[in-house]
Amino acid sequence: MAKKNYYVVKSGHKLGIFNNWPECQASVKGYKGALYKGFETKAEALEWQNDEGASRDLRDSSNAGMLTSSIGNVDFEVYTDGSYLNGKYSYGYAFVKDGEVVLESFGIGEDLEAASMRNVAGEIAAVLHAVEKAKSLNSRIRIYHDYSGISLWVTGDWQAKNKFTQAYVEFMRAHHGLYEFKKVAGHSGDQFNDYVDRLAKKALGIKTK
After folding, report:
1. Measuring CA to CA, how many Å separate 26 from each of 15, 36, 123?
2. Cβ 106 vs Cβ 83: under 8 Å
3. 28-50 b/e with 16+ CB inside 10 Å = b?
4. Which residues form a coiled coil (predicted)?
5. Cα distance between residue 199 and residue 209, in whole Å
């Protein structure tokens, strides 16, 4: 993840752009409803500082952390993954209970424009479908993912720069309380991570061992 060199505080004890974290932290610590974000370049910081709509889209890091922090006991562990081949992306997810897959799904993404994000579009689709399924089951889930952006976009640590990632963040924040995230290493021999990787590839007709 790129180093944050500038911090913008829109709501806090002191407003403005800071070039170090301690000053930013001092400006927001203990301030209810603080709104701030870090950026790699000053140009990005200025753009966000002057964007009135950003206040609706991004929370302060403490609030964002609440959206992705532990929700306690979960009903299912859910593994998600995406794949890409020849202009098409796919997704796969599996609900796991007591070490067994109890529900699974996979398919091909329908948004041709989103396919420009290649397998990342599939990663996003897998999580969105999984959360929708959890909602229909009135269940709480722990989402295991191997692509960092899946959780970091939601927390605001990564900036959602296009309409697809922005829509993803909006959806996930609207459904906070249904899920928590857990990062796993891709292709590391994790049984269920490998399982959903095969599901996503299966949707595209990619043969796996």
Report:
1. 11, 12, 36
2. no
3. beebeebbbbbbeeeebbeebbe
4. none
5. 12
